[in-house]
Write a structure and sequence with these properties.
Radius of gyration: 21 Å
Number of helices: 10
Structural class: mainly alpha
CATH topology: Rhopdopsin 7-helix transmembrane proteins
Strand order of the largest sheet: 4-3-5
Number of strands: 5
Distance between the termini: 62 Å
CATH superfamily: Rhodopsin 7-helix transmembrane proteins
Helix content: over 70%
CATH architecture: Up-down Bundle
Length: 311
């Protein structure tokens, strides 16, 4: 279609794998393995929480939402990557591009707030134990979880609406393996100043604000843990936070770099690597971290496996 004297593209071509002439089958196997680990690992977390009554607490209620977000997050990008690896032409339509940007940002934003709420839950459990049942009653937990999803989708709708107004002229090739907002802005022919300003604003409200809440929560948590006199008590209290702290550092670290890169200065390969770590690898790591570092999750898994053997 024509926009003024320019031709607005209706399809984009990924060049992320253009330097690899052979070995697409092996890449397909790698990405398929990552996707299967992500989906099956997070489904395992959801099923274990549903089956084991010991995991019916606010902490694991939010962990279930986190696992659902990780499945959705990975499913936005990896299936299209797998399809393109099996095709000779690595392309995506304009409508699919905007859809991919929308859902990536929606799930990313929601995950930031879910992680912040999980930190607040740990604060309430460790620092306000006598008021915990009131602060984190089921209705409040449901409202907080739904608010996280709504915030993510509203933020994504704003960025996608602004992106839909951009003109791309003849720029139909993108040096990436999937569509995210930063690489989309790099190939736009029209002014992206408003889009970039909104990204920085969103970084504060959807990224830095949750991270600040997490930091404050853990400041009080660590202060309370240090006041515990016995080493056993300290280890037990800290073990309930260790998995979450690891996930937070990985997720927010990658997210900050991914959405706040300078317009110039990054090699295309580094740009692709950063986005891949944030959108594909991190959702795979979360269930692994919670499985290996959380005694209650490991106990629930062991119980299920033993019951299957007995059956």
């Amino acid at each position: 279609m024509d926009v003024g004297n320019q031709t607005q593209v209706t399809e984009f071509t990924f060049l992320g794998f253009s330097g690899i002439r052979h070995g697409h089958f092996y890449l397909f196997v790698v990405f398929l393995a990552i996707y299967l680990v992500t989906v099956l690992g997070n489904i395992m977390i959801v099923v274990l929480i549903q089956m084991d009554p010991r995991l019916h607490s606010p902490m694991y209620f939010f962990l279930r939402h986190l696992s659902c977000l990780d499945i959705c997050h990975s499913s936005v990008t990896v299936p299209k990557i797998l399809t393109n690896l099996l095709r000779q032409r690595h392309s995506i339509s304009y409508q699919q591009c905007l859809a991919q940007v929308f859902f990536l940002m929606a799930f990313s934003g929601a995950e930031c707030w879910i992680l912040a709420i999980m930190a607040y839950d740990r604060y309430a459990a460790i620092c306000q134990p006598l008021h915990y049942s009131c602060l984190m009653r089921p209705r409040v937990c449901m409202q907080l979880a739904m608010a996280s999803w709504v915030c993510g989708f509203l933020d994504a709708a704003l960025h996608t609406a602004l992106a839909s107004r951009l003109s791309f002229g003849g720029a139909s090739k993108i040096h990436h393996i999937f569509f995210d907002l930063p690489p989309l802005l790099r190939i736009a022919c029209s002014d992206t100043y408003i889009n970039e300003i909104m990204i920085h604003i969103a970084t504060f409200f959807m990224g830095m604000s949750p991270f600040l809440l997490i930091t404050i929560s853990y400041f009080y948590i660590l202060s309370s843990i240090l006041r515990i006199r016995t080493n056993t008590g300290r280890r037990k209290a800290f073990s309930t936070c260790a998995s979450h702290m690891t996930v937070v550092l990985i997720y927010f670290g990658n997210g900050l770099v991914n959405y706040n890169q300078p317009s110039a200065g990054y090699a295309l390969e580094i740009d692709t690597l950063i986005s891949t770590l944030y959108c594909i690898i991190t959702p795979m790591l979360n269930p692994l971290i919670y499985s290996f570092r959380n005694k209650e999750v490991k106990g629930a898994l062991r119980k299920v496996l033993e019951s299957q053997r007995e059956a």
